[in-house]
């Protein structure tokens, strides 16, 4: 009987990085993101550092809150 | 907004959360109040920061108020601001929920339903607990617990029935291929075979992309939930024998909200 060697099952998705060739997606994994100074919805100026938690952050870029 | 609902769990992971758009502070304030958003929404009205990230959408007609938008997406950065993962999509209407991202990247414990006792194993489903919008992506999970000395077989095995998680196809969503974790090799000396197996606890993930409102509407129940059915098939064996293959039916119910079409007051809108 042939030995059924375990097929290495590709680990899908776990480390993110979807890079559709046609769409620029900015800083790559391993690169630092640019800092910023922007006002939030209350007019308070926030920098990248002020957003980061002890383990990092999720930074979301979205099209518009209006449409 | 779906991120707000995941905020407690994002914070529990030690992560900050911030969202950036080209909207004015006034538009963001109106939105935050309407949607009860407490995390920072950052105003980048000249798209300076969007440009500095290299994600300005330059295909938009510059004479319209839509010029200045980014290619939308999410960066996961560490405590030094270094990217560890990112999620961008071609279609602006498709969004990963923060919960899905957390589940996939951090192995965050989902809020499980009560475990189901099946033959030779216990099984628990999770995912889809937060209300979702059309075209969002959601990750569903199935956790398996096997008693001592019992194993099941990984996909790709020959000669035994491998595990298989499948969702009943539906016009309401498209399913990615199911994600199975890395199996381990078990040597079966008696028959001189090495086989890929799972023992103890493991988790499988099924990520789906919901369809648009027209696809979802006819399939929602009275509570505006989308029922999703699936099944988990397996063959359990212990040290001495293999048992009859079993199939366990699975169910999820995802509460679906309509598209958010509310606009900011006229005076605040970008011209």
Structural notes for this entry:
The complex is a heterodimer of chains A (67) and B (271). Chain A is mostly beta strands and 67 residues long. Chain A is built from one helix and three strands, in the order ββαβ. In chain A, strands 1-2 form a two-stranded antiparallel sheet. The N terminus of chain A is likely disordered. Chain B is an alpha+beta fold and 271 residues long. Chain B has two domains: 107 residues, Glutaredoxin, CATH 3.40.30.10; 140 residues, Thiol:disulfide interchange protein DsbD, N-terminal domain (Immunoglobulin-like), CATH 2.60.40. In chain B, 15% of the residues lie in helices and 35% in strands. Chains A and B meet through α1 and β3 of A and α1, β1, α2, β2 and α3 of B.
Mind sketching the topology for me?
The complex is a heterodimer of chains A (about 70) and B (about 270).
Chain A: E1 37-39, E2 45-47, H1 48-51, E3 56-61
Chain B: H1 2-12, E1 15-21, H2 25-35, E2 41-43, H3 48-52, E3 73-77, E4 83-88, E5 95-96, H4 98-106, E6 116-118, E7 121-126, E8 136-145, E9 151-153, E10 164-167, E11 173-175, E12 184-188, E13 193-199, E14 201-210, H5 213-216, E15 225-234, E16 246-255
């Amino acid at each position: 009987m042939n030995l059924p060697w375990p097929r290495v099952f590709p680990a899908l998705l776990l480390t993110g990085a979807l890079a559709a060739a046609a769409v620029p997606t900015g800083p790559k994994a391993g690169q630092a993101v640019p800092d910023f100074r922007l006002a939030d919805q209350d007019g308070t100026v926030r920098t990248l550092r002020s957003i980061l938690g002890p383990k990092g952050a999720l930074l979301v870029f979205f099209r518009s809150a209006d449409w | 907004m779906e991120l707000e609902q995941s905020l407690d769990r994002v914070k529990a992971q030690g992560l900050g959360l911030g969202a950036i758009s080209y909207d004015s502070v006034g538009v963001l304030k109106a939105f935050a109040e309407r949607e009860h958003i407490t995390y920072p929404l950052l105003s980048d009205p000249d798209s300076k920061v969007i440009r500095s990230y290299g994600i300005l959408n330059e295909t938009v007609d510059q004479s319209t108020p839509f010029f200045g938008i980014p290619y939308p997406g999410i960066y996961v950065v560490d405590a030094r601001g270094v990217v560890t993962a990112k999620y961008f999509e071609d279609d602006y209407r498709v969004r990963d929920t923060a919960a899905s991202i957390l589940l996939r990247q951090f192995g965050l414990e989902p809020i499980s339903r009560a475990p189901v006792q099946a033959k030779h194993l216990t099984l628990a489903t999770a995912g889809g607990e937060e209300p979702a919008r059309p075209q969002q992506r959601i990750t569903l999970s199935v956790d398996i617990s096997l008693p001592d000395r019992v194993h099941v077989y990984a996909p790709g095995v020959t000669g035994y029935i491998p595990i298989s998680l499948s969702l009943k196809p539906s016009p309401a969503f498209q399913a990615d291929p199911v994600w199975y974790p890395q199996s381990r090799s078990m040597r079966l000396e008696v028959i001189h075979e090495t086989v890929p197996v799972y023992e103890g606890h493991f988790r499988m993930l099924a990520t789906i992309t919901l369809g648009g409102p027209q696809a979802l509407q006819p399939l929602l129940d009275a509570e505006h939930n989308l029922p999703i059915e699936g099944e988990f098939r397996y063959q359990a064996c212990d040290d001495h024998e293999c048992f009859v293959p079993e199939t366990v039916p699975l169910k999820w119910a995802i509460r679906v909200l309509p598209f958010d079409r509310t606009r900011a007051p006229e005076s605040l809108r970008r011209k």
